Amino acid sequence: MNKEQAFEKKQIKKDVKAWIAKGKPKQQILEELSLLYKDRATISRQLESTPSKMMKHRYRCFNYMLAGLLLVATVLDIIILTHLKWGMYPFLDFNYTTSVVLDAVFLVGVLLYRIESYSWIASRAVVSLITIVVTSYYQSFAEIDILIFISFTLIVAFLFLGLLLGVKLCPQRVPKVIDLDVHGTEKIKKTIYVFPD
Question: What are 83-97's pLDDT values in tens digits?
């Protein structure tokens, strides 16, 4: 990729975000930006990964719930880290330390509606669930059992909300059959894919 293509991709990303912030429909943005830029595939990919103003408004309560849960989980993970005897359970030390860092990064992604953050939140939830279940099966943590249970519950909520928001904020394009006039003599049916919002 040369500098001109990289600059065009940055400009497309900037224009898509600006036009979506104005409330324009994604299909209209695709058609208008396709006239300005030659890379229609990049425009389409950028539109697919950027939630529309309407979808942000519709799912903002779920987004705020997820952000609040991430904040609570970060605080809870810090409390658990302070109560663990450092070095005694290296697997848990690593899990909760990385959880604090990842939760802070994901919190910023959720507040900025970055679609890739939601799938990473769900993936992190699965890894943390496996870690907690396996570690708790082999070892009892009497001093922090209730904290681990609360953390486990929050992680299940992360998994659900991360998957829900990742799918609902940016729905896939849907097929639409149109009739095309070929040289004024016959009509053919063609399937195109349009944005639902």
Answer: 777 777 677 778 778
Question: Are residues 158 and 181 located together in one domain of the fold?
Answer: no
Domain co-membership, 94 together with 175: no
> 14-30 pLDDT, tens per residue?
998 999 989 888 888 88
Using DSSP's 3-state secondary structure scheme, residue 174 falls into strand
Tell me how far apart the alpha carbons of residues 37 and 117 are, in angstroms, rounded to a whole number.
28
Dihedrals φ, ψ of 192, to 5°? -120, 160
Contact between residue 53 and residue 20 where contact means Cβ atoms under 8 Å apart: yes
Give the residue from 143, 150, 151 showing the smallest Cα distance to 96.
Answer: 151
Q: How many structural domains compose the chain?
A: 2
Cα 54 → chain centroid: 17
CA distance 74 to 110: 14
Single pTM value for the model:
0.78
Long-range contacts of 159-164 (CB under 8 A, 24+ apart): 159/122, 159/125, 159/126, 159/129, 161/62, 161/65, 161/66, 161/69, 161/121, 162/66, 162/118, 162/119, 162/120, 162/121, 162/122, 162/125, 163/118, 163/122, 164/62
Q: Which domain holds residue 178?
A: 3-50+171-194
